[in-house]
Amino acid sequence: MLRDFETKKREDSNSLNTEIKQLETQLLGQQQLLMKEKMPVIVLIEGWAAAGKGTLIKELISELDPRFYNVVSPVVLPEADERFPFLYQYMKAIPVNGKVTFLDSGWMENVVRKYLRHEITKEEYRNRVRQVNEFERQLRDGGYIILKLFLHIEKRKQYERLYRLAEDPKTEWRVNREDLMQHKEYKRFLEAYDDFMEKTGSTVGWQILDGSHHKTAVRDALRLLVQRVDHAVNDGRYEGVTFQEEFPLKEMPKLSEVDLSPSIDDDEYKKELKKLQTRLGELHNIIYRKKIPVILCYEGWDAAGKGGNIRRLTYSLDPRGFDVHPIASPLPHELNRHYLWRFWTRLPKTGHICIFDRTWYGRVMVERLEGFCTANEWHRAYNEINEFERMLTEWGAVVLKFWIHIDKDVQLERFNDRENTPEKQWKITEEDWRNREKWDEYETAVDELLQKTSTKNAPWHIIESNDKKYARIKTLKIIVKALEKACEKHFKNMME
Question: Same domain for 279 and 229?
Answer without folding.
Answer: no
